[in-house]
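Allow me, if you will, to draw on your knowledge of protein folds for a short while. I am sending you one protein, given as its amino acid sequence and as whole-number tokens for its backbone shapes. Kindly check, if you would, that the fold set down in the tokens agrees with what the sequence suggests. The record follows directly beneath this note:
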Amino acid sequence: MLRSLNARATVVSLLFLAVLLGLWEINSHAPAASSAKSEYELLMGGAEQETRVPPPSAVIERAVEELSDPFYDAGPNDKGIGIQLAYSIYRVLSGYFMAALVAILCGFLIGMSPLMYKSLNPYIQVLRPISPLAWMPLALFIIKDSEASAIFVIFICSIWPMLINTAFGVASVRKDWVNVARTHELSPWRTAFTVILPAAAPTILTGMRISIGIAWLVIVAAEMLVGGTGIGYYVWNEWNNLDLTSVIFSILMIGVVGMLLDMALSAVTRLVRYQE
């Protein structure tokens, strides 16, 4: 039954894609409505410039061209899409894993101690709503390095979902499980690793999955600001070159990589699920 549903869903999804691409292609080649030229254009004899969104056939052609040699390096402003994505993924994972280390440790502390929860909750509620990009000017001023500043922005945007979900997961562990550990005279550390961590793991992984999506969103905007390398810089550089075909291709690559990161965390989340 499930396989049949998945097969039908795949067919419907492909039909939607075919219709969307077909309409996009037709609209891209349709003649534009004529408009009167200005007096200046008539005097100068210039043709009216028409700007159109590139058709999917042009985007596919560009994708084949770029993906055939994704790791070429022809200078500071001319690197392959593979190199640009590698820079972005490195920054995302660097900030993300640092945030995971801090968030999971602090989340355990907050979840297991009502005192620490009440003490730290005001700071969390003040810092959590701040846009990650609002930290960028301060990070650039203090750190004075665009690469490290981008990683710091990923750190600060990734930490909150993991921290909150870890604290919630730890606090929600059934008390009778903890009481059983106490009756067996397990140490607090052993209780944390053998009882609380496995029970809270699905909630912790959910927070990590949310964080990786946010981190991938933020790195694109951060690289547009700091420039140099990365997929965000690639998008901005192609826009400055007025190459809309490359812009659309890079947008699709951002979506594909984001989907793969989410799928990886989703697979890990399924591994730690348990039946009570």
User: Anything to note?
Assistant: Residues 56-64+77-272 form a domain with the MetI-like fold fold (CATH 1.10.3720.10).
